[in-house]
Amino acid sequence: MAASAALVMCAAVGPTRQPTVVVPVSQVADPAAGTVRIDGEDYPDPLRLRDGTPVTTTAVWEEQRRPELLDDFRRNVYGHGLPDAPARSFDVTSTTLPEATRKLVGITVEGPHGTGTIDATLFVPRTGDEPRGTFLMIDHRGAVGDDPARSSGYAPVPAILAAGYAFATFDLDDVAPDGGAYRGGMIDLFHPADRPLPDDAGRAVGAWAWGASRVMDYLQTDPDLDPTRVAVIGHSRSGKAALWAGAQDTRFAAVVANNSGSTGAKLARRGDGGVGAETVARINAAFPHWFARAYRAFDGREGALPVDQHELLALIAPRRVVIASATGDANADPEGEFLAYLAAAPVYELYGLGDTGLPSAEWPPRADRGFRGPAMSYHLRSGGHGLTAADWELYLEGDLFGR
Ligand code: GCU
Description:
This protein has 9 helices and 15 strands. It is α/β, with parallel strands linked by helices. Helices cover 24% and strands 23% of the residues. Residues 236-237, 261-262, 278, 283, 331 line the site of alpha-D-glucopyranuronic acid.
């Protein structure tokens, strides 16, 4: 699309504030229809209750609209999660390395049908100062080892430590193996293994998000970390899980979704986005173990979904949301991720935080630079699908948790 026309909305708070929100004219809500127009199509309006009442205050957003949206995403997309308060214990083994204190943390979860353990790894920089914050990575590549010196662009632990952040990670296979055996991690601690899961039960992506919250249970207790400065980060399938974790669990002060694509930051109603991107039907066919079975009802019928993915991003408000795309990542529909990012801004603006940091709503924005507002960040990296050192450079720029 050529969203050249942009509307600048003035923030309503404080006499000295400058105009902050840049959204395409086509994204302005249509009060009569109860929808927002995005790139010429109707989308659900995050700022309207199910009964049509406009949401104009943060109180109504938090007490009424957020629960409605979470319920819609649970019923129709990600499924209902595992219970939030299982009995658990933490088993910590600390080792002092030259650049970090490494803690191997066994997080044991108990359900009615057994116990399981998530093995998390945490690196805390040895500067003597409290870390500036912690990145918690949901990892599906098994790519983060115990030795920070053996790192990669995907998880450049030395650079993260040098920037003053702690870094924690867990392998999502501990929670739900990524394939046909997905129930064999933690899901069947809570469901009888010989019975099918209900259609609206969460599957692997829901379990991974839940696993991030269990690791967060531990991070909240670690004396070396500030529990109010933890970001959950994920790439691709793990980016979908990171968004869903951050949408539900407000203990995450920030969410970083790298190339999260379909059922991540990409708007579902765009279908293949004109670039052959992954649709709801394709993702459900290729990865039947990721989402609730109920999501399949929307194969080829995205317009019938009660939600779309800009509303998932909006559920992170007023905490920082960071969306990153790559120019060559057609499968993820980078423009669809960009449009969802912009369309989440009106919810941030309820808090006076709707500045997306982008100079205009024109696609594509300049590649390889970070755009940052007080609570929203975006970048478009040159190149293909991946989480790279270049992405991390932008994540480590500035203070992730500052305004
Ligand atoms: C596939 C899938 C994507 C997913 C990606 C990944 O490409 O189609 O939805 O994001 O795998 O996780 O790497």
